[in-house]
User: Fold this.
Amino acid sequence: MASIDNSLKDSEVQKHLNELENVATEEELEKKLEKWNKFGFNVSSWMKYLFNHDSGEGFKAEWLSIDEYKRLAEESMQDAWRVVHAPSWKLEKRGSQKGDIVESTQTEKFGKVYRFTGIVDCPAKFLYSEFRDNLTRLPEWNPTILKSELIKEVGPGVDLSYQVTAGGGRGIIAPRDFVILRRTAPLSSDGKVTDDTPSSFICSGVSVTVPGYPPHRDMVRGHNKVGCWFLTPKWVQTPNGKVEQTVFQWLMCCDLKGKIPQFVLDAAFATVMLDYIVHVRAFAASCKAKGMF
Assistant:
């Protein structure tokens, strides 16, 4: 964790933070930092401190019953399904690949939520099975996830996991860790779990606390309010016939803790989402080359 420059008074720190909150673009941020550094202000140090400083609330955790975990997991999945289908979304950023977009919407229950949408060249069921069954292998092909550990299988389609995500914002936002209650399921068109031919697949997650996984002293514990990977099959015509692709949507609403201005969060979340899909596509292409689908 970065140490704050004690030569700056609290009033000066707040003044500079207020200026940062009014910066609208990454270019403006770079200019501000360059100017302040010329005057001898170690702005980067205290920015990192403020952005990655947790409140230090006491850790309390106890195991819930199987039924309570199942209820919470089902509720978080339904929340995610409703939000991913919300009607009003605002464009945040376009990706380099045609059709890749990051959008956001304001919700009454969770605040600002982000949604990525893009196409992956593989069957939706294959990608869903990989996310569902090989959670601990995610860091092997996805460098945005530093650690992924299965804590406990709660029941069919419900588990507890521990994950560490890479930082963002050009190093200003440090890595976060999460304890996630996950729900995976094939869904019908109205968002109900189905054993018939599904219209989509979901891997949703919400933060919980469990014994044995307290926040690390040198890492900030993030809080996932609502989120999911939402995978929808899409058939496209090619010269060799019809092939199935996946409409890949990632819903994210995280409290990263720390005093992070909204524009920094917007840039960081959009960048993480657009970086993430690059690794998903590379993984799908590798699996296709190996004849796995």
In short: The two ends are 44 Å apart (CA to CA).
